Amino acid sequence: MLRELIPATNERVPLHTNDEVNEQIRLKTLQDIDKYKLHTEGIDARLEELDHEWDTERFLEANASTIVLISTILAASHSMYWLTLTGMIGFFLLQHALQGWCPPLPLIRRFGYRTADEINKERTALKFIRGDYAAYCTDPETVKNLV
């Protein structure tokens, strides 16, 4: 029963994202991978970009901590009622950690922010195209199954 309430780490955000948005993100990733099948010289630069891409967790943490800091300052300088906002953010972060959902998540996903797992799938596919895994597998269709 606990496994039903708390999904696997790599599944929690996609489970709470609209199927259409998940599919848009997946198709965009596949398009990016297809582009590098034809232009392999750009793979190293793309891998560098992926190393710096913000995933949903990082974006959410940065925004939540900003709101917590602002609400704490407002509580100290204006009214203690601002701590209610701090508490709400804490609750939503806990809910996100456990279940993978929080109020801003649908918007974050619509903006195209991917999970770390989705980013790593693209990274793995690009490394496959580059030939990093040639000793293990040579089937080009394997790339499609990675995403």
TrEMBL record:
This is Inner membrane protein YgaP-like transmembrane domain-containing protein. The lineage of its organism: Bacteria, Pseudomonadati, Thermodesulfobacteriota, Desulfomonilia, Desulfomonilales. InterPro entries: YgaP-like_TM. Residues 56-107 form the Inner membrane protein YgaP-like transmembrane domain. Gene3D superfamilies: 6.10.140.1340. Pfam families: YgaP-like_TM (PF11127). It comes from the Bacteria.
